[in-house]
Amino acid sequence: MFEISIRVLRRDLMFGCAVLGMSTIGVRAMTDDSTVLAPCPQTPNCVCSDESPSSRQYIAPFVSQMSEGTPDSLDARGLLAAIAAYMESRSEFRIVTQSDDSLQIEARSRLLGFVDDIEMRVRGNRVVVRSASRVGYSDLGKNRRRLESIRQAMIAQGLVQPDKP
To answer: Is residue 53 part of a domain?
Structure first.
C-alpha cells in the first residue's frame, strides 16, 4: 500500500510539473562555457556559486587547502578528483561526465527517486558548484544540504578550507 502511494505521489508531482509548463533544469540546462555555470531559475530548487552572494540561491564555492608550491588549478583539480571519489562511494550519486576541470553528477533521492543535477568546475583554487532539481517548484533545501554535506566531508579530509564564522 505504501509503495503504491509513493508511486502515485511521484507520478502526480511529475505530471503536475508538466502541466504547469516547468521544464527540466538539470544537465540539459548546464552550460558548455567552462567559465560560467548556468544561472538558477526563479524557483527555490537550485543553488549556485555563480549567483550573487546576496541571492538566496548563492552557495559558496569549495576553496581548496593550498599545498605549498602547488599551482592553484592543480590543487583544485585534486580536490575535484577527491569529490568524485567520494561521490562514487555513495549510492545516491552517479557521475555523468568527468574531466580534470569539471564534474557532472546525478543525485537521486531515496524515497521518491527524484533526480537532481550537480555540476562542479575548477576555477583557480576553487571548485564552483551548482545543484538543481529537475522537477518541482521547491526542493525543501535538499540541494543546499547535499552540497554542504559534501563540503563537510572534504573539510574532514583536510581538502577544503573550513567556513569562516
So the answer is: yes
pLDDT tens across 117-164, in order?
999 999 999 999 999 999 888 888 999 999 999 999 999 999 999 876
Residue 152 pLDDT: 96
What CATH number did the domain enclosing 68 receive?
Answer: 3.30.310
Neighbouring residues of 131: CB distance < 8 A, sequence distance ≥ 6: 46, 47, 48, 59, 107, 116, 117, 118, 119, 143, 144, 146, 147
Cell of 63: 576553496
What residue numbers bound the domain in which 107 lies? Answer: 24-156
- In tens, the pLDDT along 36-49 reads 899 999 999 999 99
Mean pLDDT, residues 16-24: 36
Q: What are phi and psi of 77, to 5 degrees?
A: -65, -40
Among candidates 113, 85, 162, which has minimal Cα distance to 10? 113
What letter represents residue 144's amino acid?
R
